[in-house]
Amino acid sequence: MAGLPWFKVHADVFDHPKTKRLCASIKDVNGAVYLFRLWAWAVRFQADGVVAGPDVTFVLEDAAGWHGESGVLVKALVASGHLDVTRAGFELHDWDEYQGAHIEKVRRDRDAAAKRRGKGRATVVRLSRDGHGTEREGD
Fold first, then answer.
1. What pLDDT does 124 receive?
2. Distance from the Cα of residue 56 to its chain's centroid
3. Residue 127 in 3-state DSSP?
4. More confident residue, 37 or 128
5. Dihedral angle sign, alpha carbons of residues 86, 12, 65, 110
6. Closest C-alpha to 75, from 60, 62, 63, 87
7. Which of the 8 DSSP states describes residue 122?
8. Fewer CB atoms near the end CB (10 Å): N or C, the chain?
9. φ/ψ of residue 62, rounded to 5
């Protein structure tokens, strides 16, 4: 699933101890921006919050917009409690708790819309310039 239009952010994110630890670790008072970019990327491309595969550190840091030394942001995200280490790679901490209901609703809405589109589809006849018709399902 790609392209979720929004995600939840708690109002205390800037003052949360985990965010303060992240900012201190990377020596950037605006460290929450990396979180926001990572979360925005995740709702579009990794809706389950799990990130694994080759070059996972690069993928995470690129998604967050990090331009510092490779591995530093991921290490800080893990140390601050924003990323959990898994056997396969990483998981955004408590992602399902915070974003799960929204992600599930979008899935249900898309499934329902797809089901509605699948019912009663008309056959459309298209005429070519030479007058021969071709049939295909309508959109």
1. 47
2. 15
3. strand
4. 37
5. positive
6. 60
7. P
8. C
9. -65, -45
